[in-house]
Design brief:
This protein is mainly α. The protein is about 45% helix and about 10% strand. It has 10 helices and 6 strands. Helix 1 runs antiparallel to helix 2. Keywords: Membrane, Transmembrane, Transmembrane helix.
């Protein structure tokens, strides 16, 4: 089951346009009202990429077949299928994360300029008409050295540069993707936080209900977007494994079972214990020694036996 945020209004075009809509007001560059729309558009992109990745991998997974020479027990069947599914999920997730990491590393290495000027800021000189590029800093962290620099995402009063509201769990930084991956959806699990945030959104508030977790897992509220993406935005896997369907598809020609009669016969059971103890205390070795000793004596007897005397007749 996909994370509820992927089917919520927070990744809808209505919500994203609502964040991006203003009434001509001027906002501080790091204001949530500037970066928020781009962050939620990126979140929507992660949901779509995860959905497409799972769908494509499931097509290949369903094309494979499970073979067994004999009809195995339900316990062994569930254990084997569980291992196969775990490997499938892990491999799919690792491939997705590796591809995303390559894109992130390429963006940082090539120092791609953000259109929002969140990583580098342009400044010009009226005297020389030159344009300068300066790396931005977030709480002492320079975007020229790291793409992971972040700062609490807030709503500011542009005139006084004072913070009016902090969006709990959300960050802004050098790169929209990097700051989003380090953010959480903590505020959007909380209806009070959402209502307070709506007071600062223009031109008018839009009612939005909080995200509800299907699994009732409290840790999801504070889990980073990076953790959710690493799990392919899946809140809970629900595999449909049926031993009955497997057995019907296997269609065994005959069935057999083994019945242990030793356990029901006290005399045979006693004999079994005696034989077992005989072997445990080295019985076969003792018998072999006795046989070798007897055989040796027989051989020695015949070797040392004096020859018969033959008396000639007149």
């Amino acid at each position: 089951m996909y994370h509820q945020v992927c089917s919520s209004e927070f990744v809808s075009d209505v919500w994203i346009r609502h964040l991006a809509t203003g009434n001509g007001s001027t906002f501080y560059g790091d204001d949530f009202r500037i970066t928020g729309a781009h962050a939620f558009r990126a979140l929507d992109m992660f949901c779509q990429l995860a959905h497409n990745t799972i769908a494509n991998n499931l097509v290949r997974f369903y094309s494979s077949q499970y073979f067994s020479r004999f009809a195995i027990s339900p316990y062994l069947f569930e254990a084997q299928i569980g291992s196969i599914l775990e490997q499938f999920q892990s491999s799919m997730s690792d491939t997705f994360v590796l591809s995303l990491k390559m894109i992130r590393d390429t963006t940082q290495v090539n120092a791609l300029f953000s259109a929002l000027q969140t990583n580098y800021k342009l400044s010009g000189s009226k005297d020389t008409n030159n344009v300068f590029v300066m790396a931005k800093n977030y709480d002492g962290c320079s975007c020229s050295l790291s793409a992971n620099c972040i700062r609490q995402s807030s709503i500011y009063d542009y005139n006084t540069m004072t913070i009016l509201f902090n969006v709990t769990g959300f960050y802004t930084g050098c790169n929209v993707i990097e700051s989003l991956l380090q953010s959480t959806l903590e505020c959007f699990y909380n209806q009070t936080c959402i209502n307070e945030l709506q007071k600062y959104l223009l031109p008018s508030p839009m009612y939005s209900s909080a995200v509800n977790s299907l699994s009732s897992n409290q840790s999801l509220e504070t889990a980073t977007i990076n953790t959710l993406v690493s799990n392919l935005m899946v809140e809970r896997w629900q595999p449909d494994v049926s031993y009955e369907k497997y057995y019907a598809a296997c269609s065994p020609e005959y069935c057999s079972y083994y019945y242990n009669t030793i356990a029901d016969n006290s005399e045979i059971n006693t004999y079994y214990i005696v034989v077992l103890m005989f072997f445990l205390v080295g019985g076969p070795l003792s018998v072999l020694k006795l046989l070798i000793s007897a055989l040796t004596k027989i051989i020695v007897f015949y070797v040392r036996k004096p020859p018969r005397q033959v008396v000639p007749q007149a």
